Amino acid sequence: MKNLYSLFLLITLTSGFAQIPNGYYDNATGTGFALKTQLNSIISSHNTLIYGSGLWNLFTTSDVRPDGYVWEIYSNCNFVFGTVANGGNQDDGTLGTIECQRFNKEHTFPQSWFGGQVYPMYSDAHIVMPADKKDNGMRQSLAYGMVASNVVNPIGNGWKIGTCTTPNYPYSLQVFEPADQFKGDIARNYFYMATCYETSIGSWQTLNASGDTVLDGTNDNVFEPWFLNMLLIWNLQDPVSQKEIDRNNAIYAVQGNRNPFVDHPEYVCQIWTNACNNMNNISFEASAISIFPNPSTEHNVTINTSNIIDSIVVTNINGQVVMEMKNPTFINNSYTIENLNEGFYFLKLTSNNQSVTKKVILN
Question: pTM for this one?
Answer without folding.
Answer: 0.79
